[in-house]
Amino acid sequence: MTDLKGRIALVTGGGRGVGAAICKMLAERGASVAVNYHSSKVDAEGVVAEIEKTGGRAKAYQADIADANVVKKMIAGIKSDFGGLDILVNNAGLVFRKKFSESTPEDWKKQVDTCLYGALNCSHSAGPLLEASGRGRIISIMGDSSRVGESGLAIGAAARAGTIALMKSLAREWGRSGVTANSISLGLIETAHDKAWVEANRDKLVKAYAIRRLGLPSDVAPLVTLLASDAGAWITGQVISVNGGYSMV
C-alpha cells in the first residue's frame, strides 16, 4: 500500500536530518526524489549518492525556498528532469529560540520567509503539477509549538501555524483534483538542535515526553511515506503529531 513506484517527490531541506530520512524512505518505496538544499550541497549530494547506490533515482536542487522566482525555476527543472511532480514535502525550516521581547523584526522576517513563505512558494509553484498528477500529495513538517505554543519559539510557531492553515485550505481547494494536504507536527528531534545543547539538557528534556526519549528522523519518515502513498488517499486537511507524547491535544 505504500508503493511509490513511478512517482516523483520533492523534499525541501532534504540534505540533513529529518529531510534526509524522508528522501531515503521515499526512494526505498520507489519514488524518484528531488533533494532540495539551500547551502548544504555536500549533504544533499550525499543523500543522492546513497539513493543511487541502492538503485534509486535522485537529483539535488539548490534553491532558497524563500525566493518565489528561484522556487519556480527549481520546479521547472524538476519537471524537465523527471517529467512532473506527485509529492511535495515542505520540510525546510528556520527557527531561532529567543524570548519574544528580545526578538527583532529581522528575526521575524527570516523565520516567516522560510517557514511560511517557503511553503507558500513551493505549494504555489508545484500546484499545477500536483493537480495534473491526479494523486498529488503535500506534506508539511513543523514543530509541535505550532499547535500548542512554546516559550522562546513564538515566531517559528506563528509561521508554522500559518502553514497549517494553508494545508487545510489547499486540502479543500485542490481535493477535487485528488490532491491531499496534511501537516505533521514534531516533538524535539535529536538532529534538529545543536548536539552539545541537547546533551547538556537531555535529562530535563526527556521528562516532557511520555516516551522517555527524544525523536529520531526515522520516527518521522514512515508517516510521510504513508501520507504520500495510496494508503493515505483519504487523509487530508489533518495535523498529525509525531511527538513521543509531548502534547496530546
Question: How would you characterize this protein structure?
Answer:
It comes from Bradyrhizobium yuanmingense. Residues 7-220 form the Ketoreductase domain. This is NAD(P)-dependent dehydrogenase (Short-subunit alcohol dehydrogenase family). Pfam families: adh_short_C2. This protein has eight helices and seven strands. With 249 residues, the chain is of the alpha/beta class. It has a single domain (8-240), classed as NAD(P)-binding Rossmann-like Domain (Rossmann fold, 3-Layer(aba) Sandwich). A seven-stranded parallel sheet has the order 3-2-1-4-5-6-7, sandwiched between helices. The model has no long low-confidence stretch (mean pLDDT 95).
Characterize the biggest β-sheet: 7 strands, parallel
Helix count from the secondary structure assignment: 8
Structural class comes to alpha/beta
Total tally of structural domains:
1
| Total beta strand runs | 7
Order of strands, widest sheet: 3-2-1-4-5-6-7
End-to-end Cα distance, whole Å, is 29 Å
Give the H and E element order.
EHEHEHEHEHHEHHE
CATH superfamily: NAD(P)-binding Rossmann-like Domain
Are there runs of 5+ residues with pLDDT below 50, and where?
none
Question: Could you say what the CATH architecture is?
Answer: 3-Layer(aba) Sandwich
> Could you state the oligomeric state of the chains shown?
single chain
- Measured as a percent range, the helix fraction is 40-55%
Family: Belongs to the short-chain dehydrogenases/reductases (SDR) family.
InterPro entries: KR_dom, NAD(P)-bd_dom_sf, SDR, SDR_fam
Protein name: NAD(P)-dependent dehydrogenase (Short-subunit alcohol dehydrogenase family)
Domain Ketoreductase: 7-220
